[in-house]
């Protein structure tokens, strides 16, 4: 019986690429593993897998009775609804410690770095196993994506070192050029329904008993989103009503200007001012230097909702 | 400002020795750390620290506003009452994943092995830092204690390898002899009040909303406890009433016969039969092969209470 390896809902590139890498590593260590994803892959992730000739993992949402390894999250809200009926053998992650608990001992590699693939690079090294060339390529892309080409405040020296090593194995000399190529794919929104854009990198959080959703779109220039911004604002309001959330925020991140516009749908929009000291106008606000949901946004909202 | 490193309430030898080792390792990696303990040390632990000339950590129970590393647990019930007001930088552990959550990314090394000190042995190696001779000695003792001289079902090949390496560094040739010396210290109960024996290695668990306490005494021969067994049974009944627990169980483990007698104080003693298939007589039952609270006992009670 195969062990499944997967990450969070609305899979991003790190969740998918790290699941593939951990399945490869564990299989080589004698535990037969299959990578899966909890949903359809984003265009950026498809681009990455195509570029390095790696097969996309199957979409699978039910895991009752299965053995699993998790990557890139330990939050129940981001895990399958039946995760409590699965046996979690381990977690590789780079986030805060979530509310998943287990009834048996497990293996956790969780480091405060910019990307799960960085932890996996260390795990390959620890076990003395070489990263295959194509997997090195997708792991490198995961790091470039999660650290916004090393610009995010979540980026650590360990991420840069891992990216350099992976670039060597994958035969990629210009890491920044690969990053821009990826982010241009990510920036293409034309013809994509607003709901799909909102959910592309969306996570629900339980903040002190309050359900808060935070989505993020990263683009190489915010003006790309001018034509769809009205639709996005309307859609997060609609999604908030459908899900019964207290709030849904959508971060429109300009990776070159290094800041985010936040679109707000909330029962109490004052939490934004409480969190960032900026008064929203017309349900939105510009947040300079805010690049990372995890580091710049979630902790501030958690305090505001405490 | 120093970062504090400590483990669970009612500190056992692994919690104390691993806190000392992690504080040493982190300090050498540039994060000044001080080991502490949440309570007085057990006789076995004092013997270990004396034997290798290592200073006992100070007892400290309040951590609000402090930065901390945790060892040997991630269960809130086993952590200080004010842990939510501390910043948890990381966890080194070998148990199931508990209900601690954090609001920031952290560093976790949690492996399904017999002892936290085994994980620490790998961490020293990962960072290319030599384990000091005296700390190798106490880490070795932690492994011998937690794995009951390699006899516990929790013992893995990694524990044996780590113990062998640490033995070499510490200059200990006969590991089993050191283990027996330790367990003889642990077995001495004469003149010790029943409450102190019950609490010596006692943990509370939240099992599906039910508060369940499980203590354990490990002796080289169960007959050592004949004279105090009545007092122990009376004391867990009293402690149950004081704490308002649903159940308190005390495991009297015979490390040579490799099994445990369980003393029962419970609102519903049938959970013992449900968990182990053995009908208790006079509030107690012999459980053959049951050596490890973590592996042989907690998962079975968690199912029985589910």
UniProtKB/TrEMBL annotation, chains A, B:
Catalytic activity: diphosphate + H2O = 2 phosphate + H(+)
Cofactor(s) the record lists: Mn(2+)
Domain of life: Bacteria
SUPFAM superfamilies with a match to the protein in the record: DHH phosphoesterases
Domain DHHA2: 179-305
Keyword Manganese: yes
Hydrolase in keyword set: yes
GO MF annotation list: inorganic diphosphate phosphatase activity; metal ion binding
Gene Ontology annotations for the cellular component aspect, listed alphabetically: cytoplasm
One Pfam match: DHHA2
EC number: 3.6.1.1
Keywords, in A-Z order: Hydrolase, Manganese, Metal-binding
Alphabetized Gene3D superfamilies for the sequence: DHHA2 domain, inorganic pyrophosphatase (n-terminal core)
Enzyme class at the top of the EC tree: hydrolase
Annotated protein name in UniProt: inorganic diphosphatase
């Amino acid at each position: 019986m195969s062990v499944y390896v997967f990450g969070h809902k609305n899979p991003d590139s790190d969740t998918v690429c790290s699941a593939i890498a951990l399945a490869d590593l564990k299989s080589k260590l004698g535990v037969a593993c299959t990578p899966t994803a909890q949903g359809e892959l984003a265009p950026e992730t498809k681009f990455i897998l195509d570029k390095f000739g790696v097969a996309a993992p199957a979409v699978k949402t039910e895991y009752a009775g299965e053995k699993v390894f998790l990557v890139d999250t330990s939050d129940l809200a981001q895990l399958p609804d039946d995760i409590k009926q699965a046996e979690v053998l381990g977690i590789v992650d780079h986030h805060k410690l979530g509310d998943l608990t287990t009834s048996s001992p497990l293996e956790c590699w969780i480091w405060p770095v910019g990307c799960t693939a960085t932890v996996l690079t260390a795990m390959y090294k620890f076990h003395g196993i070489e990263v295959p060339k194509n997997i090195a390529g997708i792991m490198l892309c995961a790091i470039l994506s999660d650290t916004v080409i090393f610009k995010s405040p979540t980026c650590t020296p360990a991420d840069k070192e891992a990216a350099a090593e992976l670039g060597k194995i994958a035969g990629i000399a210009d890491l920044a050029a690969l990053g821009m190529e990826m982010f241009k794919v990510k920036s293409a929104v034309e013809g994509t329904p607003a709901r799909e854009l909102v959910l592309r990198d969306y996570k629900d959080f339980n903040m002190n008993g309050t359900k808060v959703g935070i989505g993020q779109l990263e683009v190489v220039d915010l003006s790309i989103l001018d034509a769809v911004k009205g639709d996005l604002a309307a859609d997060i309001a609609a999604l908030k009503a459908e899900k019964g959330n207290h709030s849904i925020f959508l971060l429109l991140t300009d990776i070159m200007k290094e800041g985010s516009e936040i679109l707000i749908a909330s029962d109490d929009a004052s939490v934004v001012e409480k969190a960032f000291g900026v008064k929203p106008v017309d349900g939105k606000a510009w947040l300079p230097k805010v690049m990372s949901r995890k580091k710049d946004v979630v902790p501030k909202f958690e305090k505001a909702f405490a």
